[in-house]
Design a protein that fits this description.
By secondary structure, this protein is an all-alpha fold. The protein contains 8 helices and no strands. The protein starts with 14 loop residues before the first helix and ends with a helix.
């Protein structure tokens, strides 16, 4: 028996292909962080023990902090341009899950009634709550993935079983959470360049695990 494939149904790319430019940019950023730290630690390691003051080059720490966000934004744009059909599919899926989360909130309010606003800040709307729920899911998945990727993957499938969240959008949100953590650490490194070059170098290296985690999440296929 022979079968033929349906040419009208495009094969979805693996996440590693879909996010190839972002992954490459993250790998480059990891190397830049290590290189920037080396420009601080290298001269110290090469100096004789009797030398008290050692001239180092901490400006690379500031450069990598400034260039990192631009590099990653550009990579995301390039990935989107390379896979326009996949972007359209992801957008449609995100609209469905967003609507499902809003409908679930509305149904809950219809049964239980909306909670009273007892403070100066109004309660979020159903739409705002839907966006916050996705962001919270991404943060939780990124945190769990650091500890145990297998259990985190199972948690993603559990989160998405009801249809209010999609596997890929949760993983993408987790990528975003990891990237933001790394970039915030680099921002700290930039402010430490003039006052404490050693701390700036240490912070550059501290950002590396966050970017490595983002690579793992961007490469993960669960379905």
């Amino acid at each position: 028996m022979t079968t033929t494939s349906d040419a009208s149904t495009p094969v979805r790319p693996a996440r590693r292909r879909r996010h190839a430019r972002l992954i490459a940019a993250l790998a480059s950023l990891v190397g830049s962080c290590a290189e920037a730290a080396g420009e601080v630690y290298g001269p110290i390691a090469a100096a004789p023990p009797s030398q008290e003051a050692v001239e180092v080059q901490p400006l690379s720490c500031a450069r990598v902090a400034l260039s990192g966000p631009l590099l990653l934004d550009m990579a995301r744009g390039e990935d989107a341009a390379r896979w326009p059909g996949e972007v359209a599919r992801e957008d449609a899926a995100a609209r469905r899950t967003y609507a499902a989360r809003c409908a679930l909130t509305d149904a809950h309010d219809a049964v239980h009634g909306p909670e009273r606003d007892r403070g100066p800040v109004p309660l979020p709307t159903a739409g705002q709550g839907a966006a916050m729920e996705l962001a919270a899911a991404g943060d939780e998945v990124a945190a769990r993935w650091r500890e145990d990727p297998a259990q985190a993957a199972a948690f993603v499938l559990e989160l998405t079983a009801g249809g209010e969240l999609g596997v890929e959008e949760v993983l993408d949100e987790a990528v975003h959470a990891a990237v933001v953590c790394g970039l915030l650490v680099l921002a700290e490194a930039r402010t430490a360049v003039t006052s404490d070059p050693g701390m700036a170098a240490e912070l550059c290296l501290t950002a590396v695990p966050h970017f490595s985690l983002a690579v793992a999440l961007a490469s993960a296929d669960l379905d």
